[in-house]
Amino acid sequence: MSAGWATGAGSLVVRSVAVDDPLARPLFEDLAREYATRYGATPDQVREELLRHPAEQFADPGGVLLLLLEDGAPVAGGAYRRYDVGTAELKRIWTHPAHRRRGLARQVLAELERRAVAAGYERLFLTTGPRQPEARELYLRTGFRPLFDVVTDSETIGPLPFTKDLRPGRVRAQPPPIPVSATPRTSQRWSTRNTSSTGTSESRAAANNPE
């Protein structure tokens, strides 16, 4: 039985799913279309990149893929996987195009953060693309620290890295947990796997979707 959370639009629950769960398909399909439009790739190319990581990286104990469901349909979602022993890397932050500007991405981030703390992680890490200003602003407004010069043109930087400390006393106030269901640079190609100045072994033109 699923726990409910009342909103003006309906009932919201958060559910952990596998990467290949049919409920997760809209997340991957929307991300593929949006990234293809913003970065000049094809949806098939982007989809292949989005699904490149082994599915088990987004499952217990080190990772998770969450969907926010409204009346049973996915309206937002996100994931994390283990980056290093104390760090979770956020991935696939997504809001359905018809449900943006409702604060759903903030709710997803808060739930991912809560679960990362419960899993023993001490910090979050993520990268987002230079052509995703909405995502950049979302992370800046939710307590993430940019590991790049924010006054520099994002197109000249490439992937934009952020981090957030999760240790006690250093976490900003967040929305309450959602009830749980029982069950690139201008010339940069879509995908690059270089080592960035921040130490990540994986730099991509777009890693997270805007709210």
Structural commentary:
α1 crosses α2. The N terminus and C terminus are likely disordered. This protein is 22% helix and 22% strand. The longest helix is centred in the first third of the chain and has 15 residues. It is an alpha+beta fold and 211 residues long. A hairpin with a 2-residue loop joins β3 and β4. It has a 7-stranded mixed beta sheet with strand order 1-2-3-4-5-7-6, with helices on both faces.
pLDDT < 50 stretches = 1-9, 173-211
Strand line-up across the major sheet: 1-2-3-4-5-7-6
Q: How much helix, percentage-wise, in residues?
A: 10-25%
> Termini, distance in Å?
29 Å
Mean pLDDT: 82
Enumerate how many helices there are, as a single number: 4
Please count the beta strands (DSSP E, at least 2 residues each): 7
Structural class per helix/strand content?
A: alpha+beta
Biggest sheet record? 7 strands, mixed
Q: Which overall shape is indicated by the principal axes computed on the Cα atoms?
A: globular
Strand content: 15-25%
**Radius of gyration, rounded?**
16 Å
